[in-house]
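Session log. Operator J.P. requested a structure for one protein chain; no other inputs attached. Running the standard single-chain path with token output.
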Amino acid sequence: MTAKVLMIQGTGSSVGKSIIVAALCRIFRQDGFSVAPYKSQNMSLNSYVTRDGGEMGRAQVAQAEAAGIEPSVDMNPILLKPEADARSQVVLMGMPWKTVPASQYYRITPELLRAAGESLNRLRSQYDIVVIEGAGSPAEINLKRREIVNMRIAKMAGAPVLLVGDIDKGGVFAQLVGTLALLDDDEKKYIKGFIINKFRGDVSLLKPGLDELQSITSLPVVGVVSYYHDIFIDEEDSVRRDTPSKAATDIDIAVVHFPHISNSTDFEPLQRERGVIVRYVRHTKDIGRPDLIILPGSKSTVSDLERIRTTGIADAIVRSAHSGVPVLGICGGFQMMGTRIDDPYHTESESESIDGLGLLDVVTTFAKQKTTWQVRAVCNVSLGILGGLKNKEVEGYEIHMGRTLGEDVSPAFRIVSRGGRKSNHMDGAVNPDGSIVGTYIHGLFEDAAVRRCLLSNLRRSKGIGSETQPFTLSKDSEYDKLADHVRSNLDMDMIYRIAGIRRKKR
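Structure written below.
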């Protein structure tokens, strides 16, 4: 069996390719097909750990969830994780492979392309349909001869391509026509139609433009997807930029926005809670007096720690903590909270030792190997911001390089399972009153009980009542809502014809 393929490319970044792919994966699944997503190369600091310990981009995880299948690194064989000094860690087939400067990356792309092709072939042998996502724009004329994620993949797979443009940015017709014009003739033949995304208003007002677009390009518009506000799907690479107005009874959470912030998706469940404001702060003046400060993950812990020292944010965090503001650190943020970071192999720094913020009496030692596990853990905190979770089991995943230990400090969690195997490792640290907590576990706030406990404790401390009803979210229902929304805006009969797929009767 060789799967049919359909590729979604875009006129630029953030036009909605990932969401369209997720929607199509769910639509094809609803229509009775086995389907898998695929993106040969992803650049993202939001990553996930698979059941077997492989690291991959969050977008393909969401797409796999939409398809109703287990995420696999074959769906994202190449993950680039930007670091300081214009270099990126290359994660190949779920494992760290090498770190390369941007200027040298294209020297290794032939080898990466072979691996990407092998992953695609494996997926095509297992599923009815593979929906492929491109990256950025296929018309980056300085890059396209060496790229391994857009037209080169379309040619390799023989995939018909639908080109997505974002009308919310303005100039969507120029986006689409301009992209097409910059493609070589042997590339243009793969473009089979257009999708206009994020439309607000009366679609009938677009009809003259749609007709002219088809006249100019001889290609159909297969749909105009309207903007939505009430469907909750993880964002891939960005944090929410809009901050709702704050009421006196709202819980105010300040997340420090590091230059190399990673896994910002950790906090999306908190952003959905009623009465909770999650702010991403980049400047000292913006911290204010929040109810909780979170230090998130970082791909470049030392560089980001030096940055917040230079800007004064580090001093503001320490002052806030000493004045009673709770602080929670996750992964790189946890490493910063200790007294010291040792870097004996110069993984991130020329120095062998870097002072931390001193909020927890622990020392981090960077290692050569990255730790990537799905984990189950039991909470060890009985007081403070996680008080009430004592002995509760939680699930999440670890992605970090190094160990963090302290002689006279209580761990925040006890790991009971790593990668499906029994474990008795200790994780994280907590100060005596539970107001300062650090952990390596990502994904904690996916658990409604964890959110309820945290927010209830913060409300109690704020004096606005202790009970909070957590936002409950069924991912399956959200993917169904997304599929229904996108299906109603696309000509699915045309898409099936373009992809060469015989449609099943529903």
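Operator note: The first strand starts at residue 4 and ends at 10.
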